[in-house]
Specification:
With 249 residues, this protein is α/β, with parallel strands linked by helices. The chain has two domains: 132 residues, NAD(P)-binding Rossmann-like Domain (Rossmann fold), CATH 3.40.50; 106 residues, Dihydrodipicolinate Reductase, domain 2. It is 33% helix and 24% strand. Strands 2-1-3-4-5-11 form a six-stranded parallel β-sheet, with helices on both faces. Strands 7-8-6-9-10 form a five-stranded mixed β-sheet, with helices on one face. Helix 1 packs across helix 7 and helix 3 runs parallel beside helix 4. The longest helix is centred in the middle third of the chain and has 14 residues. The protein starts with a strand and ends in a 6-residue tail after the last strand.
């Protein structure tokens, strides 16, 4: 039985994770953690003093996830991270710490199997197109931009090609930021924040005479749960560092 703690348990994603863990036959929820709730443990440290935790699942906020991960890895608690907003430097430090401490760390920008397939398809398409941009759409309560999914997608595409702006003219932005942020291999990422969206992403490829669009839409947070449980089961039985659900699908 895998003993699970959920950090950010009173949030929208946290509540879904709690329900999924409680329904899993091979898992036991031993701690719910949320600084905003008086009915739960308020910190990981407080929970760890009382409970024996095999894997902590973190769906908190960008400003707290890095410190949460450092605490877990330095104290022998394996961690599955669904919170986005970590920098490349922070991810690399967590990778090194995970290996140093021989403690599993799993980071996934997106736990939806459909979204992961979208990223994998985009990487495959990147071999055949010299121009590409990404548009990601989220609800207006999302605190980080661009999304972790769009960053991971750009990273995968950049492994196939060094520049996705072939033939583009020299540009002048009359309104700063109108061309989006420029990511790996000069891929422009555009972030939309709007009520009504949950999470969607389009990867647009272009060449002379044709456009290819790969799109994924999320309508219900339940779609993330199979991926979360898959990551937990992997992490419970491994001491490695993993970035991206695609590595175990």
């Amino acid at each position: 039985m895998i003993k699970i703690a959920v950090c950010g348990a009173s949030g929208k994603m946290g509540r879904e994770v709690v329900g999924a863990v409680e329904a899993a036959e091979d898992m036991k929820l031993v701690a719910k953690i949320d600084i905003a709730s008086d009915n739960m443990y308020r910190t990981i440290e407080e929970a760890a003093r009382v409970e024996d935790i095999d894997v902590l699942i973190d769906f908190t906020q960008p400003k707290s996830i890095y410190e949460n991960a450092l605490y877990c890895l330095n104290n022998g608690i394996k961690i599955v991270i669904g919170t986005t907003g970590l920098t490349d430097e922070q991810i690399e430090h967590l990778r090194q710490l995970s290996l140093e401490k021989n403690t599993g760390c799993f980071i996934a920008p997106n736990f939806s199997t459909g979204a992961v397939l979208m990223m994998m398809f985009a990487r495959q398409a990147a071999k055949y197109f010299d121009n590409a941009e990404i548009i990601e759409f989220h609800h207006n309560k999302k605190k980080d931009a661009p999304s972790g999914t769009s960053i991971k997608t750009a990273q995968l595409m950049a492994e196939e090609k060094s520049d996705f702006t072939l033939g583009n003219t020299d540009e002048v932005e009359t309104i700063e930021g109108s061309r989006g942020g420029e990511a790996y291999s000069n891929i422009h990422i555009h972030s939309v924040r709007m009520p009504g969206y949950m999470a969607s992403q389009e990867v647009i490829f272009g060449s002379s005479g044709q456009i290819l669009t790969i799109r994924h839409d999320t309508m219900d947070r339940k779609c993330y749960m199979p991926g979360v449980l898959l990551a937990v089961r992997h992490t419970a039985h491994a001491n490695n560092f993993v970035y991206g659900l695609d590595n175990i699908m």
